[in-house]
Amino acid sequence: MSADGSLRGVERPAHLRGDLRLVAEIIEPGSRVLDIGCGDGELLAFLAQHKGVDGRGMELSQSGVNAGVRHGLSVIQGDADHDLEDYPSDAFDYVVLSQTLPATRRPRQVIEHLVRIGRRAIVSFPNFGHWRIRFRLLLDGRMPVTPVLSQVWYETPNIHLCTITDFVALCEETGVVIERSVTLDGAGLPYRLNPRGALANLLAEQALFVLRGGRG
Predict the structure, then answer these.
(1) Are residues 8 and 194 in contact, defined by beta-carbon separation less than 8 angstroms?
(2) Cβ neighbours of 72 (radius 10 Å)
(3) What are residue 209's DSSP bridge partners?
């Protein structure tokens, strides 16, 4: 990855979300990949075309599953909270969970399954500790709406919002190893901030982590 987080030797389609471009950079060519909450499969399609991955997708919405299948992708309907336990250990090289963790009912168990199923897990999520969110809560006393957290509280699928500091603490509590981490702005462009520091928790709107299980 270059200093600005751009992809080297890989086409960067304009439609691919910022954090997904970073995911695409991390994943090695020819890898076995499971994308959980894959939506219409845009990441899987990009990885299959440009990196020759053996990709699989899991998506809760039927419309997302249908869209992925129409594009020739292997996508099944599934729920991260209940269906990951059916996957064998080390079945994939990478398991991706992008912007989906806050919508899970059992985030701790989901993370534990990710690092069991995959040799590496790549997780991205919005940072609820960002200064703008804190300011809006302080000023208005209402749940904020931001470009990253774009839905009002009664329509959002997010039920377990967390900060970067919360996520790092969860990894420490569960023995999950953080191999790489990137803090991001709202557009998915990287910041040069240490995710374990208070400044990252205040300034970064998103974060991306590469994880592995403590087993090695």
Answers:
(1) no
(2) 11
(3) 123, 181
Q: Which residues does residue 22 pair with via DSSP β-bridges, in sequence order?
A: none
Contact in structure between 23 and 98 (CB atoms under 8 Å): yes
Range 5-23 average pLDDT: 62
Tell me the two tokens of residue 136.
């809006």
CB 59: neighbour CB atoms within 10 A? 25
- Four-CA torsion 194, 37, 71, 34, nearest 10 degrees: 70
Q: 146: pLDDT confidence band, cut at 50, 70 and 90?
A: confident
d(CA 146, CA 152): 9
Flag whether pLDDT at 11 surpasses 60. no
Q: Give the count of alpha carbons within 13 A of 84, CB side only.
A: 28
CATH number corresponding to 18-128+159-212 = 3.40.50.150
Domain boundaries, the chain: 18-128+159-212
The pTM of the full predicted model, rounded to 2 decimals, is 0.88
